[in-house]
Each structure stands twice: as structure tokens, then as C-alpha cells.
Amino acid sequence: MNRVILIGNLTKDPELRYTPNGVAVATFTLAVSRPRANQAGERETDFINIVVWQKLADLCASYLRKGRQAAVEGRLQTRSYDNKEGKKVYVTEVVAENVQFLGARSGNEGSGFDPAFGGGGGGGAKPPAKGNDYDPFGDPFADAGKPINISDDDLPF
């Protein structure tokens, strides 16, 4: 089984390129903190190369930016190539199959809208308007302390 799940922050904006056949490919590096401190009491960070293909590559290039937190699910891949000096170079990277955009985007803090959770990508989806009774992308506790208008027929129990 080859499954990798990571949560970290982007070290720079994703780089978007296209293959000769027109297939989108985005690359970025995710900084992932280790769960335990080292012997000196410091938490170390791993910098992991991520590769994303096709439509997901376009979405990542459009919505992810340096510093943004993201969750990546995919598979570990090792490949090699000969560099300009003729030396074989080995590269280990995660080929992402699923990317969730976490945290707030700059300029849109508080809206809670995230294309990874139902929109974006040129499909005309827009963030829900503020003041809606139900905001599926926003803070579910935004109206804490106010009465909830719900009938017994709407309850599943």
C-alpha cells in the first residue's frame, strides 16, 4: 500500500506548467512539522515536494499561495534523471490525488468559502452571501447563543 497524507504550509506559490500534450501539472513544496521535538527541544520541519496533475493542478495554482495551509493525499513516488554533468539524480515526491485548501485565504478571511469544498475552478461558483440562514462553507457556530428555528419533523431522531 502506498498512501501519504500530509498537512502543512506552502513554502512558495505553486508553479503551473503544461506538458506538450496540454496537460496541466503544478508543483509546490509543503513544510510539514514533525510531531516531536528533537534532543535540543526544537521541532523540526520536513520540506516535501508535491506534484499535482490536470484540473486539480489548475485549482491549486489558482487558489494556493505561499504560507497557505493545505492537506495533501496521494502516493509517494521516486524517479531519477541524469543532470547536466551526467550524474544520476534521484527525486522523491508525493503525487497528489486530493488536495484540501485549509485556513483562510488572504483578502477573504472570514468568508469560509473554499473551492476545494464545492466550487471554484471557473464553474461560476461564488461564496455564499453574508447573512444567509445557512452558510455551508462558513463557521457553523457563527450564530452561537441565538435560538435555532427548526421543527421536530426536520430532526433525524
TrEMBL record:
<keyword id="KW-0238">DNA-binding</keyword>
<dbReference type="GO" id="GO:0006260">
    <property type="term" value="P:DNA replication"/>
</dbReference>
<keyword id="KW-0234">DNA repair</keyword>
<dbReference type="Pfam" id="PF00436">
    <property type="entry name" value="SSB"/>
</dbReference>
<keyword id="KW-0227">DNA damage</keyword>
<comment type="subunit">
    <text>Homotetramer.</text>
</comment>
<dbReference type="InterPro" id="IPR012340">
    <property type="entry name" value="NA-bd_OB-fold"/>
</dbReference>
<feature type="region of interest" description="Disordered">
    <location>
        <begin position="112"/>
        <end position="157"/>
    </location>
</feature>
<comment type="function">
    <text>Plays an important role in DNA replication, recombination and repair. Binds to ssDNA and to an array of partner proteins to recruit them to their sites of action during DNA metabolism.</text>
</comment>
<dbReference type="GO" id="GO:0006281">
    <property type="term" value="P:DNA repair"/>
</dbReference>
<dbReference type="GO" id="GO:0003697">
    <property type="term" value="F:single-stranded DNA binding"/>
</dbReference>
<keyword id="KW-0233">DNA recombination</keyword>
<feature type="short sequence motif" description="Important for interaction with partner proteins">
    <location>
        <begin position="152"/>
        <end position="157"/>
    </location>
</feature>
<dbReference type="InterPro" id="IPR011344">
    <property type="entry name" value="ssDNA-bd"/>
</dbReference>
<dbReference type="GO" id="GO:0009295">
    <property type="term" value="C:nucleoid"/>
</dbReference>
<protein>
    <recommendedName>
        <fullName>Single-stranded DNA-binding protein</fullName>
    </recommendedName>
</protein>
<dbReference type="InterPro" id="IPR000424">
    <property type="entry name" value="Primosome_PriB/ssb"/>
</dbReference>
<keyword id="KW-0235">DNA replication</keyword>
<dbReference type="GO" id="GO:0006310">
    <property type="term" value="P:DNA recombination"/>
</dbReference>
